[in-house]
Design goal:
This protein has 497 residues and is of the alpha/beta class. 58% of the residues lie in helices and 11% in strands. The protein is rod-shaped, with a radius of gyration of 81 Å.
């Protein structure tokens, strides 16, 4: 890989030619200015070297602290003694700051603006005493006309840099000024080696082997390029890489466009094929629709036929059900009539039996009446009849009398009724006399009412039931029911006839 030179006049190329064989060397840079631009030490730092950077302007200190963490970065000025010094900065031109008032006046006469700063001042002697414990492989001094003061503050007997690189021209001029300070170097056993048009190189007497490496200016055999060319080269490489990437991207895009075109053609062909399939499917759908319509018409016709057949079947079923219903009704009616006839026959048999019983009872009753015609009971009845006629006459005679006479009549009526009730409680009377009295309609009605009243008094639970005729009260309920059914049959037959 080519050596990249960051220095203004390729000072780092010459120094690397002489000192490149040293691994992890040490340097001191007085007037370091910037950690990269016009830096003599940047290339060495990249190759593992380290050292002390002295730069009094504060605006450069953050960059050194960030980019040179292995270095000792001092924000001071170097001079012949310890203390403070006024530094004149030229903001328009980095690297022109100087502690020499005459140099500052020259810049001001040239039209440049100056800024004065008071900065700390230290000697190289104190800096080395504090920070140097190894060999100093090179010392570079670039202080814009203040070189003599820096050299006066160095103890070359104690610290022996192998190579000195000192700016030897007036600021922004080809005019040399090394005559003002060179004796301070050569008097310390340093030998002049090379002048590159801006700097003078000196080699310590104990390292004469380095002189030959510093006799020829940097050239093509040093295999180097400037940082500007490296940047331009990098920019060119980046541009070429970008162009190549753009070409590759363009080729990829072209390939993608071709692929997209082919894909579009394939899609178009597929769309044509899909359209043809769609047309075919449409024709098939139309045909299927026509078939479906025909099938629907056939289904409708079949449905109509099925509805007609269903209607006929239902009509037949209705007629069948009707005939079956009629038959079942006729059979049910006939069965009911037969059951009713059987019931009536049974009732008639029971009635006949009851009639025979009643005939026997009537015959026995007639015989008993014949027996009791002359009995005391009959005489009692005669007396009751007489009493009844008397009562009637009394009632007729008392009609229209005052209320007192009416009360007497009512009392007499109650006594007669009481006597009748007492007589009716007699079993022989109920059995033999009442049936004959009941043949008289007027007497029958009154006797029935009186019997009903007696039944209700004797049996309160019979209230609400129809009264029983006195001549039937001794019959059992089944006999009375049979007689009632016979009476209804008789009346119905009479009505039909």
């Amino acid at each position: 890989m080519s050596f990249i030179s960051y220095a203004q006049n390729f000072e780092d190329v010459l120094l690397w030619r002489a000192l490149g064989h040293i691994k992890n060397g040490f340097y001191i840079d007085i007037g370091a200015n910037d950690p990269e631009q016009h830096s003599v030490t940047k290339a060495f730092y990249e190759r593992g070297w380290y050292g002390v950077n002295v730069e009094p302007l504060k605006q450069y200190q953050p960059a050194f602290l960030e980019q040179r963490p292995r270095d000792i970065n001092l924000c001071v000025a170097a001079g012949a003694e310890e203390g403070e010094i006024t530094l004149f900065e030229v903001p328009a031109v980095p690297g022109w700051a100087s502690a020499e008032p005459q140099v500052a006046r020259t810049h001001e006469l040239d039209g440049f603006e100056l800024l004065a700063h008071t900065v700390p001042l230290r000697t190289l002697r104190s800096i080395c005493a504090e920070h140097v414990s190894y060999d100093i492989h090179f010392l570079k001094i670039d202080v814009e006309g203040h070189e003599a003061q820096v050299l006066r503050g160095m103890d070359f007997e104690r610290w022996r840099p192998w190579i000195l690189v000192i700016e030897a021209t007036m600021p922004n001029s080809r005019e040399t000024n090394h005559q003002t300070w060179e004796a301070l170097v050569t008097g310390q056993r340093y030998q002049f080696a090379y002048f590159d048009g801006l700097n003078r190189y000196y080699v310590a007497a104990e390292h004469p082997e380095l002189l030959a490496s510093l006799q020829v200016q940097p050239n093509v055999f040093d295999d180097f390029i400037s940082v500007h060319l490296a940047h331009a080269w990098s920019a060119g490489e980046a541009a070429r890489a970008l162009a190549l990437a753009n070409d590759e991207r363009a080729q990829r895009e072209q390939a993608l466009r071709i692929e997209a075109g082919q894909r579009a053609d394939s899609e178009y062909a597929l769309r044509i094929e899909a359209g043809q399939r769609a047309d075919t499917e449409h024709v098939l759908r139309v045909q299927a629709s026509h078939r479906a319509e025909r099938e629907h018409a056939l289904r409708v016709e079949a449905g109509q036929r099925a509805d007609a057949a269903f209607a006929r079947a239902m009509d037949s079923l209705v007629r069948l059900v009707d005939s079956e219903a009629r038959r079942h009704l006729a059979e049910a009616g006939r069965a009911a009539a037969e059951a009713q006839v059987a019931t009536l026959c049974a009732d008639l048999g029971a009635a006949n039996e009851g009639a025979r019983t009643v005939a026997a009872w009537a015959h026995d009753l007639n015989r008993q009446l014949m027996d009791i015609g002359g009995s005391p009971a009959w005489r009692t009845v005669q007396r009751l009849r007489l009493l009844g006629s008397v009562t009637g006459k009394v009632r007729r005679s008392v009609v229209g009398l005052p209320q007192a006479a009416g009360a007497v009549a009512a009392l007499t009526h109650r006594l007669v009724l009481k006597a009748l009730r007492a007589t009716a409680r007699s079993a022989p009377v109920r059995k033999h006399i009442l049936p004959r009295l009941l043949k008289i309609p007027a007497v029958e009605v009154r006797v029935v009412r009186m019997a009903a009243a007696l039944q209700q008094q004797q049996h309160p639970y019979t209230q609400g039931r129809p009264p029983v005729a006195p001549h039937l009260s001794d019959l059992p309920p089944s006999a009375r029911k049979a007689l009632a059914d016979l009476e209804r049959v008789r009346r119905r037959s009479t009505n039909y006839s």
